[in-house]
Amino acid sequence: MTEPAPRPATLPDAQTVTQVRHWTDRLFSFRVTRPQSLRFRSGEFVMIGLPGENGRPIMRAYSIASPSWDEELEFYSIKVQDGPLTSKLQHIQPGDQIILRPKPVGTLVHDALLPGKRLWFFATGTGIAPFASLIREPQTYEDYDQVILTHTCRQVAELEYGRQLVESLKDDPLIGEMVGDKLRYYPTTTREQSAKMGRVTDLLRSGEIFTDLGIAPITPETDRAMVCGSLGLNTDLKEILEGFGLREGANSEPKEYVVEKAFVG
Ligand SMILES: Cc1cc2nc3c(=O)[nH]c(=O)nc-3n(C[C@H](O)[C@H](O)[C@H](O)COP(=O)(O)OP(=O)(O)OC[C@H]3O[C@@H](n4cnc5c(N)ncnc54)[C@H](O)[C@@H]3O)c2cc1C
């Protein structure tokens, strides 16, 4: 039997889905081919989408969850049942095409932070996506002595994508040695019972997180932070980080912490 011919790229900026994995009824991840010309900095986001009913594409912002050196692009997505994009996107299969505008942007990048010793990644929900990229980025381990990834979700199953990724890094042939024991992982749940319960904001305010990790509290001299969650979490974390003396940076003006919305609404 002859192999079927590859489907022609009929969409503008079309990329082909190579892998799909469903984590829960509200979360899935997928990989697509990478446009040859696409260069991005780990932590950035792009616009991806599908053709709409009226021929106009439905496009949404998505953090690239894979590192800048990866041959493919990975995304980690919510499934909003009546969401214009994700009500359809959740049904993609390997071989399908999505639209990907190759114009990466974003503030969760190393360039937006001043040099430091400890780097914090604070994520809730799909906000772990940019950090899934950055924990696989060699520069993260070249620039910092210690990297702490916190991930807070309602249910234990919602932590699984991050947990498996962190676990896999130890044996990763490309980056495993660099990661070594520099990466600390601090997952918490807010609804379902788990080993560590609570909002990361409360755990920071009480200092419990520092006791749990056996480390000194955050200071502007040593610590840098990136935050990606809901608007509410981002606002609260900004206040907490400012309370520790950190200032918000940007690509044009690097400082001690940076923030990006995991979604609008
Ligand atoms: C900078 C940026 C980066 C983003 N990166 C990602 C990403 O990596 N993965 C991802 O799944 N989404 C991401 N989003 C959100 C994404 O753009 C879409 O909102 C999401 O895919 C849902 O699209 P939709 O058309 O189905 O529903 P929309 O009409 O866009 O959203 C409907 C409602 O669903 C809720 N919602 C949307 N996205 C999320 C989410 N991620 N988590 C929880 N609730 C949500 C909100 O209440 C929103 O009002 C990002 C958004 C921004 C601004």
Highlighted features:
11 strands, single chain, 8 helices, 265 residues, binds flavin-adenine dinucleotide, Rossmann fold, five-stranded parallel β-sheet, six-stranded antiparallel β-sheet, 31% strand
Record the SSE blueprint:
Blueprint: E1 14-24, E2 27-33, E3 45-51, E4 57-63, E5 72-78, H1 86-89, E6 97-105, E7 118-124, H2 129-134, H3 138-143, E8 146-153, H4 160-169, H5 176-179, E9 183-189, H6 200-206, H7 208-213, E10 223-229, H8 231-243, E11 257-261
Parallel strand pairs: 7-8, 7-10, 8-9, 10-11
Antiparallel strand pairs: 1-2, 1-6, 2-5, 3-4, 3-6
The site of flavin-adenine dinucleotide (FAD) has 24 residues, from strand 4, strand 5, helix 1 and strand 11.
Briefly characterize the structure:
The protein is an alpha/beta fold and 265 residues long. It is built from eight helices and eleven strands.
